[in-house]
Amino acid sequence: KQEVTQIPAALSVPEGENLVLNCSFTDSAIYNLQWFRQDPGKGLTSLLLIQSSQREQTSGRLNASLDKSSGRSTLYIAASQPGDSATYLCAVHAGNNRKLIWGLGTSLAVNP
Amino acid sequence: SAVISQKPSRDICQRGTSLTIQCQVDSQVTMMFWYRQQPGQSLTLIATANQGSEATYESGFVIDKFPISRPNLTFSTLTVSNMSPEDSSIYLCSVEHGPPYEQYFGPGTRLTVT
Questions:
Q1: Residues of chain A with pLDDT > 90: what percent?
Q2: Chain A from 34 to 63: CB within 8 A of any B CB
Q3: Residue numbers in chain B where pLDDT is lower than 50
Q4: Which of A102, A104, A106, A107 to mutate: most B Cβ within 10 Å?
Q5: How far is it between the farthest Cα atoms of chain A?
Q6: Alpha carbons B79 and B44: distance in angstroms, whole number
Q7: Mean pLDDT computed over A9-15
Q8: Could you read off the pLDDT of A15-51 as tens digits, one per residue?
Q9: Which of A22, B65, B95, B113 has the most C-beta neighbours closer than 10 Å?
């Protein structure tokens, strides 16, 4: 059974720091992996999707990597800003059944 | 990408009543998903809705409690029936595009049951 774990559960950093959020999964047979952002009480915003054949994806200050063999993905945020404060969720697309398996998220606070 | 809207954005309802949540997408999609997110928790999939067929419910969710309609390729509704305070959650609809089956989410409906 696929399980997704995100570490750390919470993170507080000063503005300007580069930071890394971690996501691990137990079954390497994934179709893709998606990173989302959720602001308090709001819906989810898709940040990056990495297909199983890809190693990384970049969007602006965000870079996500995927290592299927070790069951890991990282989300790198460069030069963090207070506006980056949110919960970041990692989800693995487990393939044929078209379901996403979710981590519990990392709550990020970037302090001015 | 896809732009998804949900109505209502929030509601406060009394125990025993029902609420229907609407989800509208700006493009035609095959699969739509309904999720629940209880306070402080991650997302739980309620059901998958394909146009023209019965929704497929996840373990722990039943059609009598959460009936779903999917009349066309851009619209779906989720009804939360006979509500109790335990149903207080954010309800989210999502769609997938692709391959590569990227998922997009609506803004959510925040439901409080008193």
A1: 83
A2: 34, 36, 41-46, 49, 51
A3: none
A4: A102
A5: 44
A6: 16
A7: 96
A8: 999 999 999 999 988 989 999 999 988 889 999 999 9
A9: B95
**Cross-strand bridge partners of residue A68:** none
Give the per-residue pLDDT at A96: 65
Secondary structure of chain A in HEC code, one letter for each residue: CCCEEEECCEEEEECCCCEEEEEEECCCCCCEEEEEEECCCCCEEEEEEEECCCCEEEECCEEEEEECCCCEEEEEECCCCHHHCEEEEEEEECCCCCCEEECCCEEEEEEC
Distance to chain A for B46, nearest Cα, Å: 11
Q: Which of B34, B36, B11 is nearest to B23 (CA)?
A: B34
pLDDT score of B33: 95
* Residue of B22, B35, B34 lying closest to B71 (CA atoms): B22
> Which among B70, B69, B67, B47 has a CA at the least distance from the CA of B57?
B47
Is the model's pLDDT at A97 over the cut of 70? no
In chain B, the residue whose alpha carbon lies closest to the alpha carbon of A107 is B40
- Give the mean pLDDT of chain A: 93
Can you read off the two tokens belonging to residue B34?
Answer: 């309904």
